[in-house]
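[09:14] KT: can someone run the structure on this one? pasting the chain below
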Amino acid sequence: QVQLVESGGGLVQAGDSLRLTCAASGRTFSTYFIGWFRQAPGKEREFVAALSWSGGPTYYADSVKGRFTISRDSAKNTVYLQMNSLKPEDTAVYYCAVKKSVSYYTLSGRYDSWGQGTQVTVSS
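[09:31] RB: done, structure tokens below
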């Protein structure tokens, strides 16, 4: 079982940037598919971005495409979510999660392990 810890959230103004970090412990990311999700108050958890630790394409929700970038650092066993040009509608708790394959990567119910989340608040 892999344990995930997110960090990097905070309060920023519209147009600012933040970089979220998802650090793994217990097991490495080496065989996993890693996703970022977010959940705003009163809303369902939604897919944001994902990648395979072994390489290949990255995946984004339309709402963040061109503004957010998901990446990984193999040496640190860490996945990042760089968020630029933030908007008030990006305000949410952001979670990272892992699963064993790329199938159904937008569905939160298909992920096996989750972090505790980190709050991102964007003021207008």
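[09:33] KT: thanks! The mean pLDDT is 94.
[09:34] RB: yep, looked fine to me
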